[in-house]
UniProtKB/TrEMBL annotation, chains A, B:
Residues 104-322 form the Heat-inducible transcription repressor HrcA C-terminal domain. Pfam families: HrcA (PF01628). Negative regulator of class I heat shock genes (grpE-dnaK-dnaJ and groELS operons). Prevents heat-shock induction of these operons. Belongs to the HrcA family. It comes from Solibacillus merdavium. The keyword Repressor applies. This is Heat-inducible transcription repressor HrcA.
DNA sequence: TATTAGCACTCCTCTTAATCGAGTGCTAAC
DNA sequence: GTTAGCACTCGATTAAGAGGAGTGCTAATA
């Protein structure tokens, strides 16, 4: 168990290093407000904290830097919510004041504001489309051979795909088909659609309409392709400003990661609600070795609706980010709640 | 007018610098294949070319580097198509062999392949949605107060937006409204929709349905918001590998530019067909001072369908990029042509 | 007259050495 | 238990010097 003084020193080191990005030394620390011990005392405590694994040195005669374990302890035990300036809170709230708001628009702007306020990179995972339920099918013919299939979900999301009609497929056939689909499949959640299409609709379609299989196949691909929810970024280039990423190789790995949407998904620990923090190697990703990710999900009622991740260096301002994220997720949950009811 | 020998030397310098990124010296050049003059002769010619503005020195005793004017001349007069390896051509063609192809999918993958083959950054501007014509309107009610408005265009593109219904707006009202819209506005190009909505539809709607204005306003915002076509990127982080962007400040400016979709649009010189090259300051953008942009548009029949831009350092392999871009635009034009007919 | 060899000079780049300073660990005194 | 003092470490910064690729100019050459 750490003594009070050790806690205080650990906290001071993390707080200082978060701001300065420089290893913090005993003498420097002893001059800080609230620290009443001498540099020598602090040196002794630092040596102990290092032995316990909370601190590291970059070289033999450098100051101390928090280790991953140190950050973890800080985050778990020393993190106190920060008071955010009213101006910044207002900036977030202003997003939601406009009346006619498109979900996608809100999400994009949220990502931008968060990255601006934090100076880190924001990744916003939109509401999971897979959980929406089919509200309506629609097939609109374009030419003799092509048409657009449209699925509208209960949350107002629209998926669509152009498809090739089998030759001889008439507008009348299309109408019949749409009717059958709507009769049988309204209310089915998208993740269930592939199975239900086959079990509930396929045989009926086959018996009433010629060559309907190829269209069903196209419909299947709408949902299967769409199994990733949409990802929005804010402040991708903010990382370039962090001194730990002056190393171009690291930077490149990170940028490449951001470009691979499916890999980005793994950064979110889905299923967990509330705010989650993963530090450095806890992310299990080489490019994220020097990064921490703070994720939070926002909800509507019982359903999970989406998640925000803020990515910064391990030396990130956890206090501030956690608080901002809290404000933002509350606002988002509320906004989507209003939309729904 | 430049002598043959001057042309040859200018060409050799550009070709060499494009590969090495190092200023090229007279002695080094004299050893090159095809160069029969001595280093001293080359020095004299270089001095002349510099005086004419085609070459520059980085410092008094360095080798020569092409100036913007030098690149411009090279591009205008010395650029000969390069033979691309059959493997690479095959890689491009393979994209278009898969049968079921979604326009968006093709475009995304094209951007990726191009950036991979060129090692530069690719920006792909999708077909200009504004020129599509309305094929069908649809309004799908979600709850008592909300609905989704959908516009399908003749090219199979789907735009949608959730909207709030005026209180007391019945399903019957919706149906009437959709009928009126489809009667009056099918065939109207999207860019014309705002005007036509007001002139053709608004008065009829008003006289038949109560409180329909607010919905019309929402419809308007679908198209007005969508006035930028969609932008797809490939290999954003490739620029990090270019030695001229080891400077983080420059890199940051570039990344920020990429993130601003509306600014990116200005990089395309719209209206011009064929391949266009803009070198360094010709782009009129601070972040692009050290970059060249090669743009090409691909067509379907008479209509412009989209454009590709490849962004690299001014010291870019123009020869290779131009050829690759040619292969790609031809393939794209053909692919979209097939889709349409 | 056009070309080329020779040479002094420039200036970037890479090494090596020296200095500085913030920080540490340890010992001894308080 | 705390703190002052001191020798030591090591990264960062600066300075000086060597090396090398390149240039411009002059004079010799074909």
């Amino acid at each position: 168990m750490l003594t009070n003084r050790q806690l205080q020193i650990l906290q001071a080191i993390v707080d200082d290093f978060v701001m300065s990005a420089q290893p913090v030394g005993s003498r420097q620390l002893s001059k800080k407000e609230g620290i009443t011990y001498s540099a020598a005392t602090i040196r002794n405590e630092m040596a102990d904290l290092e032995e316990l694994g909370y601190l590291e040195k970059t070289h033999t005669s450098s100051g101390r830097v928090p280790s991953e374990k140190g950050y973890r302890f800080y985050v778990d035990h020393l993190l106190k919510p920060q008071v955010i300036s009213t101006g910044e809170v207002a900036q977030i709230h202003s997003l939601f004041e406009k009346q006619i708001v498109e979900a996608e628009q809100i999400i994009k702007e949220s990502a931008n504001i968060l990255s601006e306020l934090t100076t880190y990179t924001t990744i916003l995972l939109g509401p999971d489309v897979q959980k929406h339920r089919v509200k309506k099918f629609q097939i609109v013919p374009l030419t003799e051979e092509t048409a657009v299939a449209i699925i509208v979900t209960d949350n107002g999301h629209v998926e669509n795909r152009t498809l090739t009609l089998p030759s001889g497929f008439s507008p009348h056939d299309i109408e019949k088909m749409v009717n059958i689909l709507n009769d049988r499949l309204v209310g089915v959640p998208l993740y269930d659609l592939p199975i239900k299409l086959q079990t509930e609709a396929l045989s009926v379609l086959k018996s009433h309409i010629n060559a309907s299989e190829s269209i069903v196949r196209s419909l299947l691909s709408i949902t299967s392709q769409q199994n990733e929810s949409k990802v929005y970024y804010g402040g991708k280039s903010n990382m370039l400003n962090q001194p730990e990423f002056h190393d171009l190789a690291k930077m490149r790995m990170l940028m490449d990661l951001f470009d691979k949407e499916n890999q980005v998904q793994t950064l979110f620990n889905q299923g967990n609600h509330g705010i989650q923090i993963r530090i450095g190697s806890e992310n299990n990703h080489l490019a994220m070795e020097n990064c921490s990710v703070i994720t939070a999900s926002f909800l509507v009622g019982e359903e999970q609706q989406g998640a925000i991740a803020i990515i910064g260096p391990t030396r990130m301002d956890y206090r501030r980010v956690v608080t901002l994220l809290d404000v933002m997720t509350n606002s988002l949950s509320q906004a989507f709640f209003d939309k729904k009811h």
